[in-house]
Amino acid sequence: MRYSLVLLLGLCATSTASASWADGLFGELSKDFGSVPRGPTLTHLFPFTNTTQYPIHIAGVRVSCGCTTANALETALNPGQSTAIYAQMDTRRFLGEKSVTIFVDFDQPQWAEVQLLVHANSREDIMLTPEAFAFGETRPGGAPAAALTVSFLGDRRWQIVGANCDSHYVQTNVKEVRRDEGEVIYQVTAKVRPDTPPGRWYTDVWLATNNTLTPKIRVPLTIDIQSDLSVSPSGINYGEVKVGQETERKIIIRGAKPFKIKGIKGSDRSLKFADNSNESKPVHVLSVTLKPISPGEWNRTLQVITDLDNDNDVEFTAQAQVVP
User: In a 3-state reduction of DSSP, which class is residue 182?
Assistant: First the structure.
């Protein structure tokens, strides 16, 4: 009986430790969307980084309510790599306050479960047209702007008293359009600064109101600022490779205008590179051949240098498990 009790306590301690190491990978474990109009799909990224010394793997992602979906952008991460859990909450599926738990299950290097929480207050007396600031694809250096209308129904006392964004790269402006007995309408404008870095951005614009029950209203904002240079895939996995065995993988490098590849930084004598063309072109196919010299975990971060004037380099990772 004593042995069984000790064994049970040991299993509980292991489970607690497992949950602890996985929780520590995430920068945040909850997201409160605040008061939102009923209708839009709310989105949020829970980023995390493999800060351990071992590869990690996500076995699955589950949710406690069908109004929310969630998935891992990448399920396998080597040490130092990052990804995110992408959560979507459909406000058409509920009215009023709603909290949903997202369960992220890890099975490597040991089992653990992380619980993420999303919360929102879906309201029918607030309308956004359109439902979000969706800028789509843009190029670096521009200053795109988008506008939407906010309608408050049934109470002419509503006021928007301020607006700000979670990102300092977004500037906001609020203007009252109309006020009558049954409806109050505002126009809200968001403008993205020209020095915003390339990448796919998800952020929120928050509208402050004079309503004590709904002091803040969230408006999602998305923009995809495409770099002048991109690489696909962003990571190469050679899998298991024997010492001295040659294994080839290919990556595609795209530019906004024709370019030449001038060199590769971060390489060593186990790697060979071959460009499909020495000409200046907007797309290059680069062959990356690995011939390892010693067994063990092999990881590299490589930088492709081009002759473009601006944004002239791009990084990708390479990994392998080298066996004798």
Answer: coil
